[in-house]
Amino acid sequence: MKLDNRKAKILEFIIDMYIKSGEPVSSKTISELFQNTISSATIRNEMARLYELGFLEQPHTSAGRVPSQLGYRLYVDQIMKKKSLSEEQTRQIESWFNIRDLDYSSLIKNSGKILSEITSCMTILSSMAFKSLIITKIEIIEVSNMALAVILVTSSGIIKSKVCKVDFDINFETLDYIYRFVNNTFAGKSVEKISKNYINSITTGLDNYQSFFSPIFYNIYEMCESLQTSDFYIDGQINLLLYKELKDVASDIIKIFSNKNTVIDIINDKFINLSDNCGAAVIKFGRELKRAELIDICLIISKYNISNIGTGNILIVGPGRLNYSVLVPWIEYFSKMLSVVLSESLEIK
Amino acid sequence: MKLDNRKAKILEFIIDMYIKSGEPVSSKTISELFQNTISSATIRNEMARLYELGFLEQPHTSAGRVPSQLGYRLYVDQIMKKKSLSEEQTRQIESWFNIRDLDYSSLIKNSGKILSEITSCMTILSSMAFKSLIITKIEIIEVSNMALAVILVTSSGIIKSKVCKVDFDINFETLDYIYRFVNNTFAGKSVEKISKNYINSITTGLDNYQSFFSPIFYNIYEMCESLQTSDFYIDGQINLLLYKELKDVASDIIKIFSNKNTVIDIINDKFINLSDNCGAAVIKFGRELKRAELIDICLIISKYNISNIGTGNILIVGPGRLNYSVLVPWIEYFSKMLSVVLSESLEIK
DNA sequence: ATTAGCACTCAAGTTAGTAGAGTGCTAATT
DNA sequence: AATTAGCACTCTACTAACTTGAGTGCTAAT
Q1: Alpha-carbon gap, residue A133 to A309, rounded angstroms
Q2: Residue B120 and residue B184 in one domain
């Protein structure tokens, strides 16, 4: 599907114009962009060809042309030149990450907010799902006379803690006994192995001590579970209302992306084929997402990660006409920075 | 401002109808609700009186009547009868709280989602800002050879932990030394006292040990800070688009409530005068909120809390025409349940 | 105090007409 | 063979005039 230079140029102009205005682009406008070196009649002929090839659409007979999703696809894959970020812009992104007071989930939540402002799109950020973590040790400390804090320390330095009510006397001996038993049982194990079944199987072997240990074991299970599941933060929903072409479908789109499981389905679709290396944004258009309600949108997906500890997703949802040449570099740089900042604050080893 | 029975009844009918339909209510409709025992002409006379008194408004000369905010005020304060929840309904709310696997912030986040579904409004839930917490002790554990976990245990059993990178050799002696020093310094103090200034003042006195302790101190400060600040979770923004009377202002409203500081301002307005006892919803209408952009909305505020550990806010944002008699009991029961569940999972002593 | 009756008002829908932006095609030009 | 001027044609968007009907306000009778 190779276009001659002029056709490609015309397609590029049409897409650029349409991204800016949201209005169908006329042959006259394009002719002017060529400084009238090519007449509008010629442009019309070329546009007719591009229409036959499927790269353009026409809202009605006497209207200008609009890019088709195939047109966008060609544009982002072959025609568009990514604008590199100015120093000023990279500095701006970096300055957002200078607020170090944030804990992990606030950082993700805030990143979503900032990205939705930059892109004027809806954003969905998922927190990292950590993989192949090994439990290094479990600390048990006394919180009050009825409660223990259980602290799970993993191979990558990720820790997780939870308070656990107990109904026995806490003293040095019991604490020490619990500490030994819990560490003998769990230390060295992978968090993935700590399933509900596993917890049940070891609890039933305990006989008398069952009620004694079972709340602690259950808390450990919950912590392992939560390390492996990711939260989703959605923001910038109203941005979708900015685009007239989405005004009727915006609320359906928002509903779809508000459902965690649907989002997971979309991300995991084989077709999307996300590369694991963070920062390389993948662009998908409505049809490619195989859902009638998403036909009008564009989805930009990027990842952030820390080497082999885990990855999280960045989703940008907007109309087809996005300023890709500017947005993609922004998003890619943003994901890279997020990875760096998280590496610094989470990865210990 | 006492209305005679019939006027009150007419106002009630008008508000009920308008809540259901969103359309101006005509004298004929009201007459029918009285089974035509009162003619539409009489109703018109009464409506003219109610209009003079400020309880009704008229979109245009030949249209029916619409409640004014003063009308709503009278309705919710004096006329409306709260519908008590059926057993089925209380069971339903309770069943949502049965999912105990959730940690604190997920519980708040999910509560917002559920409430936005029940109410068809936008919801904002704030996490609890804990007050008057005393630091009981601070545990320090080794996470890797370059990192320590610092665990803050407070008087109410609330704990908070953070990983802290250090650049010295961790061994039993250093750990023990740090433990003693940190606990001598912080144990028994109120978290409110641990300000940036306070940290600076004690750090500067340390001379040689300054670089040694300062990352640990800084992490302690951050944890104290975050215990006292609350996060805000907003959900159900699209619900505002369901109401035709809000369609032009919905995105402004969403923007206003997306700003944490503005929300805090609104909640703290003396006029709102929230009672601390959880579960008693306060209803405020547009004018009463003193912001031009909020003129068309209604805000229902409720609190959840745990005796004297802290309180969090539940905000429901919708149009003036909400089904108050049903919604208010729901919201109040929901806040009560949230308080109970949180008490169970957080309050230890 | 209530109500029947009627003139009046206004929003919303319908129809018809107009302007203009843009196309598609043909024939002339390069 | 590619380009272009020229023109008829199409379709949207806008405006103006008209119609309909829901609903009111007021008056006079009950």
Answers
A1: 7
A2: no
Give the A:B interface size as CB pairs under 8 Å.
Answer: 91
- By C-alpha distance, which of A108, A82, A78, A80 is closest to A328? A82
| Residue B233 pLDDT > 70 | yes
Q: Cα separation of B149 and A183, whole Å? A: 17
- As a whole number, mean pLDDT of residues B90-108 equals 83
Å separating the CA of residue B31 from the C1' of nucleotide D24: 15
Mean pLDDT of the residues in chain B = 91
Q: Can you give the residue range of the structural domain that contains B50?
A: 5-79
**B139 neighbourhood in chain A, CB within 8 Å:** 139, 141, 149
Q: Which residue is nearest to nucleotide C9 (CA to C1')?
A: B62
The closest nt to B27, taking CA to C1', is D23
Question: A94 and A151: one domain?
Answer: no
CB–CB of A161 and B159 under 8 A?
yes
Convert the pLDDT of each residue in B298-348 to its tens digit: 999 999 988 778 889 999 999 999 999 999 999 999 999 999 888 877 755
Does A60 reach chain B within 8 Å, measured CB to CB? no
The answer to whether B141 contacts chain A (CB < 8 Å) is: yes
Helix segments in chain B, DSSP class H: 5-21, 27-33, 40-52, 69-74, 87-96, 104-119, 172-186, 196-204, 210-228, 250-258, 260-268, 324-346
What are the pLDDT digits (tens) for B9-50? Answer: 999 999 999 999 999 999 999 999 999 999 999 999 999 999
What pLDDT, on the 0 to 100 scale, is given for residue B307? 73
Report CA(A322)–C1'(C25) in Å, whole number: 35
Q: Which of B105, B143, B241 sits opposite A159 (nearest CB)?
A: B143
Which of B201, B227, B253 is where one domain is finished?
B227
Cβ of B161 within 8 Å of Cβ of A161? The answer is: yes
Give per-residue pLDDT as tens, A176-230.
999 999 999 999 999 999 999 999 998 887 777 777 788 899 999 999 999 999 9
Question: Do both A46 and A62 map to the same domain?
Answer: yes
Domain end position, chosen among B227, B256, B284: B227
Confidence at residue B278, expressed as pLDDT on a 0 to 100 scale = 64
Distance CA A312, CA B84 (A): 45
Structure tokens at A270: 């084989």
For residues A218 and A238, membership in a common domain is answered with: no
Least-confidence region, from A108-117, A220-229, A267-276, B149-158: A267-276
CA distance A121 to A297: 11
Measure the CA–CA gap between A215 and B282, rounded to whole angstroms. 39
Q: Do A238 and B222 touch (CB under 8 A)?
A: no
DSSP-based three-state secondary structure for A218: helix
Nucleotides of C under 7 A from a protein CB: 2-5, 8-11, 20-26
Written as one letter, the residue type at A309 is: I
What is the band of A277 on the pLDDT scale with cuts at 50, 70, 90?
low
pLDDT tens per residue, range B131-158: 889 999 999 998 888 888 999 999 888 8
Note whether B200 and B237 are same-domain residues: no
Q: How far is the CA of B60 from the C1' of C11 (A)?
A: 9
